[in-house]
Design brief:
The chain has 254 residues and is an alpha/beta fold. The chain has a single domain (10-247), classed as NAD(P)-binding Rossmann-like Domain (Rossmann fold, 3-Layer(aba) Sandwich), CATH 3.40.50.720. The protein is 42% helix and 14% strand. The chain has eight helices and seven strands. A seven-stranded parallel β-sheet has the order 3-2-1-4-5-6-7, with helices on both faces. Strand 4 (91-94), helix 4 and strand 5 form a beta-alpha-beta unit. Helix 3 (72-86) packs parallel to helix 4 and helix 4 runs parallel beside helix 6 (158-178). The longest helix is centred in the middle third of the chain and has 26 residues, at 109-134. It is globular, with a radius of gyration of 17 Å.
């Protein structure tokens, strides 16, 4: 069997039972990485994805770990159970997010904190808990997920826009702090991607989706975003850190 680029690496992908997170988990596993599938609660989707990855034939193994990464206990559980299952951590993908739509006049503190704790606190908590293990890796990588609306603005998404912009600041700060350990830290910003929106995202299409058009005249695929993440986690991207990289078909030119 040909050695894969991520052979025997261990990756955690938060919020990975559907859409971009799911595609990332599969992409990393196809390159030989063992993958932890994460969601707040156990589901048939999690079991199905774990089974799919375990049947790929690349030598990659997957486990599902239900943990709410928006709090200290949940993030700690995710990291501890990953190490228990695989013995190490090489890659952390902070993908978990909530895409709420709430007019600012109606935005309550609880709504603000729910989004902030999942997107921004979750990335901090998971990165902090995983750090001792990433430091031991010869190819430690953290990939955080931003959002197009953080750069363009968007109506009724003050909490999401703020959290996603905070992710960019966290990425730059961690790149400085973790470079001495050889850990790369980057932020991927998908835009106008063909995903299935759940009830938690609210009804209708986000405002910025209507205002921005891609240069290719189509929406991007979840696999195209996953390919970028796979590259950033691999051996060919070890000189890339602290960067915010957009994948939006030219809808927004940074």
């Amino acid at each position: 069997m040909t050695t894969k680029l991520l052979q025997d690496r261990v990756a955690i992908v938060t919020g990975s039972v559907k859409n971009i997170g799911r595609a990332i988990a599969i992409s990393l596993a196809k390159e030989g990485a063992h993958v932890v599938i994460n969601a707040r609660s156990h589901s048939e989707q999690m079991d199905a994805l774990v089974h799919e990855i375990n049947q790929l034939g690349t030598g990659a193994k997957a486990v599902g770990i239900s943990a709410d990464i928006s709090n200290v206990e949940g993030a700690k559980k995710l990291i501890e159970e990953t190490v228990k299952a695989f013995g190490k951590i090489d890659i952390l993908i902070n993908n978990a997010a909530l895409r709420r739509h709430t007019p600012f006049a109606e935005l309550e503190w609880e709504d603000w904190r729910e989004v902030m704790s999942t997107i921004l606190d979750g990335a901090y908590l998971c990165s902090k808990a995983a750090l001792p293990y990433l430091k031991e890796s010869s190819m430690g990588s953290i990939v955080n997920f931003g959002g197009l609306s953080a750069h363009t603005g968007s109506k009724e998404r003050a909490h999401v826009v703020t959290a996603k912009m905070g992710i960019i600041g966290l990425t730059r700060a961690l790149a400085h702090d973790l470079s001495e350990f050889g850990i790369t830290v980057n932020c991927v910003v998908p835009g106008l991607i063909d995903t299935v929106r759940g009830e938690s995202a609210g009804s209708g299409t986000p405002e910025h989706h209507g205002k921005n058009k891609t240069l290719f005249g189509r929406r991007g695929s979840i696999e195209e975003v996953a390919n970028l993440v796979e590259f950033l986690c691999g051996p060919k991207a070890r000189y890339i850190t602290g960067q915010t990289i957009h994948a939006n078909g030219g809808a927004y030119l940074a």
